[in-house]
């Protein structure tokens, strides 16, 4: 089973890129972020014609998340994070697909920091950590996939010294990510590629993609029930080089169909 995450940076403007990638990569499940479209203007028909059922949480001009499933319709289980009824940002969507609970998220950027936007980011992150803990208590296979807007370590950013005060790399944010991992979540890409510089985002400016001046900010966190099924993980970096593409590249994991069985101990 192949699960992907892709910040499309405007689903309507990038639709040809998205459809081309879906056809070539053939993921089973896709989490999309930054749709930048109200519900009524989402390209539902085009996605369905590509063979995917979908659930959406749109928002005019900003944010927006979706979960796509090949030849199936995701069963929605949650829309939005608990903990703040006044938060109207479209940043979290959750659904069941083929026995796995999929959480699709677009964590706030938080810049400039310090400031109100950074405060909102930390509060949202705290709510997310609490919800993630509640998901682990269910003892079911869960993946939390999306744009976390966090570079967890120096290995995840091309020039760490230039990012120390950025909201994506400040100590408070990295500490929050580590707090999440300590609950029992597995960072899929870093687990399989512990020492490799892997990026998922390259800015449009300063020739960043050609220089490979990137960031790893798109992540897959797996619950204890799902982590043993992890086979492969990677980034479709070439998509970032396509015409009129997003500044992110699709990121993906592959899971075994069934949990790996542990050999029984001899009595």
From TrEMBL:
Leader peptide range in chain numbering: none
Identify the residue position(s) of the site Important for catalytic activity.
Answer: 218
Q: Where is this site: Interaction with DNA substrate?
A: 248
Catalytic residues (UniProt): 106, 147, 248
Residues binding Mg(2+)? 7, 34, 147, 149, 247-248
Which domain of life, per UniProt?
Bacteria
Q: For the site Transition state stabilizer, which positions are given?
A: 149
Pfam (any one): Exo_endo_phos
Q: What does the record give under GO molecular function?
A: DNA binding; double-stranded DNA 3'-5' DNA exonuclease activity; endonuclease activity; metal ion binding
EC number(s) from the headed UniProt entry:
3.1.11.2
Instruction: Indicate yes or no for the key word Magnesium.
Output: yes
Q: Cross-referenced Gene3D superfamilies, in alphabetical order?
A: Endonuclease/exonuclease/phosphatase
Keywords, A to Z, come to:
Hydrolase, Magnesium, Manganese, Metal-binding
Occurrences of domain Endonuclease/exonuclease/phosphatase (ranges)? 4-248
Q: Which GO terms describe its biological process?
A: DNA repair
Query: How is its cofactor bound, per UniProt?
Result: Probably binds two magnesium or manganese ions per subunit.
> Which cofactors does the annotated protein need, by name?
Mg(2+); Mn(2+)
Q: Look up keyword ATP-binding and say if it applies.
A: no
Similarity comment text for this entry: Belongs to the DNA repair enzymes AP/ExoA family.
Name of the featured protein: Exodeoxyribonuclease III
Q: What is the native source organism of this protein?
A: Luteolibacter luteus
